[in-house]
């Protein structure tokens, strides 16, 4: 999951960026900042991978600010400049900005920037998830997880060896941590699509390999279900009459 921060005062610009990035599930917005102190505080707490910065109006010396925060950020974190003119392009390049967007920003340019960043920084798939309970740490191989079920503020992990492991976190917490083969298909369920053997629209449930339980899905998450079907099918489905 790539985290991004927007340092900007214009609400329409913020909304444009967020609306485009909502199409990319691998990106998560960690907030918006409007001045030096607020920006620095979020950056030090969240360590974003990508930062949009209005270099015209937000911070008096934006390039000095970028050089300062680079001391704390990961080496592969990137900055994208937002400006109403091309006057500062050279200085932005010298400072190491990843991209330069001109106001008024077009959705297409934001989308291009997102895809360029994604290509340069592909997400490494994490095959291990850590469940912490007090001073105990349990590590699960995500390939061995069949599905997750929410139970109030706890989440049950159903494993391919028949074991059920509980964690004292909400389902939403794990939705943001798990690899992209895990899909939310119900308010109470996340399924590992690699273990799905059948999807039934008549009963609104999925059959899971190595499990006697079926996992339900709802129309609220039908886009995820259809995405799962399309990715599991290597060729067009054959209808049996």
TrEMBL record:
User: What InterPro entries does this protein map onto?
Assistant: CheY-like_superfamily, LytR-like, LytTR_DNA-bd_dom, Sig_transdc_resp-reg_receiver
- Which Gene Ontology molecular-function terms are recorded? DNA binding; phosphorelay response regulator activity
Quote the SMART domains the UniProt record gives.
Answer: LytTR
Which Gene3D superfamilies does this one have? 3.40.50.2300, LytTr DNA-binding domain
Task: Provide the HTH LytTR-type domain boundaries.
Answer: 129-231
Q: Which parts of the sequence belong to the Response regulatory domain? A: 3-118
Q: What is this protein called?
A: DNA-binding response regulator
- Source species, please? Flavivirga aquatica
